[in-house]
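EI: anyone free to look at a 331-residue chain?
SC: sure, send it
EI:
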Amino acid sequence: MSEVILELEMKRESKSFTDSLYAILTGAGLFSGPKYMLSALSGMASIFSVHERLLPFCVSAYGEWGTVHKRAADNLGIFTVTDAGRTRHPTFKSYQQDAVEWIKASLDRGLAAVYWLPEFGVIHGYDDADRIFYVQDGFSSESRIVLYDNFGINSTPFWYAQIFGGKVDIPVKDMTLEALRMALDDWETPYSVPPDRKIASGRMAYSYYISALEQGDFDAHGAVYILDSFRVSRNEIMLFLQDTAILFPGLNEAVKCYEQLVCNFGAPDRWVDAENRRRAWSPHVVPALVDILKEAERLEEHAMRIFKKISGQYPDLSRSTVPRWGLHSAR
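SC: here you go
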């Protein structure tokens, strides 16, 4: 019987996956720099997903996690392996016990694992004697306990885990260019979880949020939570562009777009009813909030045109070359 506990700190400040990834990679010495840089370079900052009724779960409903999260690790030059599935599947127990073993092996190598709670958290230790994992959720300094036998079982119908390995060095300019292209991909993808059209992405996400506010039929908690996440991510993009604008002529104009967008929203609780402990929009601020969202969409649209212009000046083999197994047909 053995026990391993990795000393790291997962703190909720951004998207839960970003917070988890940052804690794991910085703890293992695989990433150095501020969280906003990791968030933008991984493509996570550019993601914006909105449910038609502003239900809070949509913040994490941005497509197939395995694909999105592998893309995030790839642009950072980090090797990664993910596994996930539905807990109702008859093979779940087999996958569950297999995942327990490879996560323990990763912890033995000094690398924690991303784990869906929900939302995402970090498995940073285990104890074979008690058959438990130690999990940080970012909201408390205390670790949560997950029994091996309960691994993957949560309030949602699915489970997810991800581990990491070695690293290759990618030039910052190349990572930055790919981050701009990932932002463009997200902006121009209206529905990230097809065929479900209750959740919109990118440019379309603005339309869903604005429409919900104007119609008045939305989840009060979700409305605040989604916009909190949006504000954080746009601030991350602004800081990232301020640091990298020197790499590409013309990128300074996009910096100004995001600086104006962030400035327009002001302090986090500017729009919140102070008397409501659950944090909800004050009804009288909705018209002004709609106007600011429309302006934010215009600013991002302009920034995306700049990203597109810059992208067009360089080869893009990952999008212009058909993969070995074909792009659309199964093999």
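EI: The beta strands are 3-5, 49-51, 78-86, 113-116, 120-127, 132-136, 144-147, 158-167, 199-201.
SC: 👍
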